[in-house]
């Protein structure tokens, strides 16, 4: 794939929404970690399907259905190549990462895991990678263990060792990058660690996938999940990657059309993966949109994106460090463009409202990670997050906005 | 900064959020109520004493704390029925953005109407007070 030279002002032209104004001011969108904006190519790809070649997939014997099925399945190939999966059958389409994790917790969790086995998650998980395991614990009698993180927001290896010591742990489900602290977890080392102790690994790649190239074979990870909407794709489409032999042994999550081989009034036999896990009419248009988003980021190149975002993160951290009374949560060595902070003088909600009036969008609250907020000793925090279209000037605008807020509450 | 934001964070609100006049748990009280905003974790506890003396403990944003404090000031000496009526009038102000001359300083929060997600910050103390005054909890 050819990569074009990274030029942020050119890139911004690809995103129609970035020319919008908010409250009469230029939009400064610093909430991409919640959901990213969409480039023209994604929007166009979705419109094109609906205008030119739309029908249900895998069902019709007619031209429209076949073309749509081809486009839908081409998106699977794109995701497989993007993750460097061994086979396209290892890619299951879901609604979002949340559904992917629930699918694993339900289907894998209630069959491959036995009562008395343990699942480990970390203290810095999004609710999406905590609550499904709590439900599994209550329904199926597995133990749920929480591995500690350090104050800097990194894995506490001593704690992790301790959790694994009794040999009961069969699954480590952990974030690849924290949506609050910005820390990357050392995925390769974690997978090797868990495998050496007889446990499989699920990585929540919602944040990481946007900022770094991910190679599931190099990581040797068993499950990898992410959502399309944070990767410049549409909402309503998510991905579950799992090793083929694991998927083959898993029973369906949802049942209905598409996921069966043959059905009588008495029983049904299941289709092989990935279709076994794609019951019902899928998000056809969104899946094709995700394919276009992957083409888009690959054309720019994840290394170029990562370099740009590293520069933004360094700049952002320096800017925030210059504001008295401001505390950034987490200080991991290996961190990405997610900066969560509190200010002595102003509460996170007041910060968000006051920035919004200046056209600056940040997130405020608990970031779907309530236990982590408690762990870090705060009740709410504001978060600025960066994307490939973010500029240094926007980060400076944030700095000026925060200075004004200090002024108001001085 | 645009004028609306200054309208919302006018001096009275900033002042009361930083230095509330009616905060702190009293040693004796006749009823209490609490409110929590699950989305952000903000919470407030309200203590009521017969005769209409109200104190609060607010943990949250400037709007929440200022609203709790201005509420405690506004309801001083009022009966539960008067408090209920005032709550209705106040909610009208913060949802419509139209000031109500009868509500005095409470009108400082009228600007919150522009920020849908923040209306609850302003109304939470009132919900907590209503809980304290709920039938069965308070007699007289
Ligand atoms: C780390 C992480 N995990 C999981 C999720 C859940 O993603 P979704 O809501 O798209 O399922 C998010 C998104 O907020 C996230 O940041």
How would you sum up this structure, described in words?
- The complex is a heterodimer of chains A (410) and B (140).
- Chain A is built from 15 helices and 17 strands.
- Chain A is an alpha/beta fold and 410 residues long.
- Chain A has two domains: 8-35 and 302-409, Aspartate Aminotransferase, domain 1; 44-298, Aspartate Aminotransferase, domain 2 (3-Layer(aba) Sandwich).
- In chain A, the strands form five sheets. In chain A, strands 4-10-9-8-7-5-6 form a seven-stranded mixed sheet, sandwiched between helices.
- In chain A, strand 11 and strand 12 form a beta hairpin.
- Chain B has 140 residues and is an alpha+beta fold.
- In chain B, 41% of the residues lie in helices and 14% in strands.
- In chain B, helix 2 (11-18) packs across helix 3 (62-74), helix 3 (62-74) crosses helix 5 and helix 4 (80-96) packs antiparallel against helix 5 (119-132).
- Chain B has a single domain (3-135), classed as Sufe protein. Chain: A (Alpha-Beta Complex).
- In chain B, a hairpin with a 6-residue loop joins strand 1 (31-36) and strand 2 (43-49).
- Chain B has a three-stranded antiparallel sheet with strand order 1-2-3, with helices on one face.
- The chains are: A alpha/beta (410), B alpha+beta (140).
- Chains A and B meet through helix 13 of A and helix 1 of B.
- Pyridoxal-5'-phosphate binds at residues 96-98, 126, 128-129, 175, 179, 204, 206-207, 227, 368 of chain A.
- Pyridoxal-5'-phosphate binds next to helix 4 of chain A.
Lay out the secondary structure.
The complex is a heterodimer of chains A (410) and B (140).
Chain A lengths: L7 H6 L7 E2 L2 E2 L1 E2 L10 H13 L10 H21 L7 E4 L2 H12 L9 E5 L8 H10 L2 E5 L9 H8 L4 E7 L11 H10 L3 E5 L3 H4 L4 H4 L3 E5 L10 E5 L1 H6 L10 E4 L4 E3 L13 H17 L1 H20 L4 E3 L9 E6 L4 H9 L3 E2 L1 E3 L4 H6 L5 E5 L6 H17 L2
Chain B lengths: L2 H6 L2 H8 L12 E6 L6 E7 L3 E7 L2 H13 L5 H17 L22 H14 L8
Antiparallel strand pairs in B: 1-2, 2-3
Bound molecules: pyridoxal-5'-phosphate (PLP).
